[in-house]
User: What shape does this take?
Amino acid sequence: MIRDMIARFGPETQSVVDIGGGYGIFAEEYQKIGDCSVIVVEPGPDLADVCRSRGLSVVSKFLEDIEISDIGEGPHSFVSFELFEHLVEPESFVQHLSELMKSGDLFIFSTLSGTGLDIQVLWENSKSVTPPHHLNFFNPRCTRYFLESMDLEVLEITTPGKLDVDIMNNSKTEISDRFWNTFLDHATENVRANMQTFISEAGYSSHMWAVCRKP
Assistant: This one.
C-alpha cells in the first residue's frame, strides 16, 4: 500500500522515513520491495538497538528533535503507523514534521477513527478507548480539516479496516444496541464480510489512513 501510494502521489522518493519505527519490521519489509532507502526514527534506545541489529539506518530521537541533517535533504516520504492516537500535542508534531518536509514530500499515516463502527457501538466498553495510552480520536472529516489547517494538501483519507465487525462480535456481551445484537447473532459469515466491506468503503471503519503532501 505504501509503495503504491508513493508511486501515485509522491516525488521520486530518495528515502522513506518511518516515524516511530519500533522493531523495524516495516522498514525491513519495505526494503525488500521498495526502490529507495528507509530511515527509522525510533527514540526508544532498546528498540533503536534492535533496528540497528537488523542493519537498518536509525535516528534515535523524538520527531520534534529531528533536524534535516539527521535524515538528509530528500526528497522524502514520511510514514507513521498507529502513532497519532498516542500524541500529546498533534499540532506540534505535524508542525515540526511540516518544517522538515520539502515541497512534494508526502506524509502517510494510519490511526484510529473515533467515528469508526466498533468504537461507536462499544463506546466506553471499547478496548480501543484506553486513556492515557490513546489520547486522540480523529475521524475522516476532522483529519482533513486539521491537516489543511496545517497548510498540507490532503490527497486521500480512507478507512480500509477489516476488523470492526469481528471486534464487535468478540465483545457481544458489551453491546446493548438491538440491531447489532440481532445482526451478530444471525448474520452469516458472507453477510458479515459484506457489511465490513460497506463500512470500510463508506468511511466508517475505526482504522483510518491519511495521505497528505507539502505544497
User: Anything to note?
Assistant: The chain has a mean pLDDT of 95. The longest strand covers residues 106-112. Strands lie at 15-19, 37-41, 57-59, 76-81, 106-112, 153-158, 207-213. The first helix runs from residue 2 to 9.
